[in-house]
Amino acid sequence: MPQPSPRIGARRRADVDTALLARLTCGDCETRTLVEMLGLDLAAVMRACVPEAGSAAVDALSARGDEGIVARMRAGGAELLAHGGPDATRWAAHRSDIVRGWGAYVVALAPGLSLDQRLAAIRPFADDANASVREWAWMAVRPAVAEAIEDAIAGLSGWTSALSPNLRRFASEVTRPRGVWCAHLPRLVRDPALALPILEPLRADSAKCVQDSVANWLNDAGKANPTWVRELIAKWRNGTPSVAGRIATRALRNL
After folding, report:
1. If both were cysteines, with which of 13, 31, 220, 245 could 177 make a disulfide (CB 3.0 to 4.6 Å apart)?
2. Model pTM above 0.85
3. Domains and CATH numbers, the chain
4. Is residue 121 over pLDDT 70?
């Protein structure tokens, strides 16, 4: 799984204004860029934003300071799970987007949940106002999706009619065959047609974020199945409704 360089956090802190870092650490404002997130000392965020978790949680994150951002966010979620239990709703409205990202990992790491329960619990994080939290939401539950890909597709197909474009995008993004900063989904790399119950309803979606996700999904699929992608786009162009032009162009950009 590709991740940023282990020591990138220390370097990035020099790229972010000190006063802004202090406000981000305390949850007085939210991260807007990857640079800001990578510049944060997550142990300091835990100390400032979740003091009730105690020094053990802070020390645990400090000990993992040289790891990549995905591993550190997962570790933060593990500490919240150990401190507050498996109910992630208490973190979904936290003022800090970092803590809400940890909350997404609480959903992913909570023991004993079925896939349907995990997907239901991740919805508030998948529809968060902050883009980073939305990314942590799909990355957090992707391993559970990978373990039961057909069941996940069946469940997520219902998300394609959600009023929120964030939820519609989630259905596409979490099932991307190759994805970003995450393991591939071998079943979908081999047989992308399995995901048509998600892709078909989104082919003419009006939201740019959904269009980009579907296009990137198909671009992923095209690396191993270029003919399938070309034929699907051709079919969609002749269908009703026809495929959004942005999806068609971006899906075929590397073919």
Report:
1. 220
2. yes
3. 148-255 (1.25.40.290)
4. yes
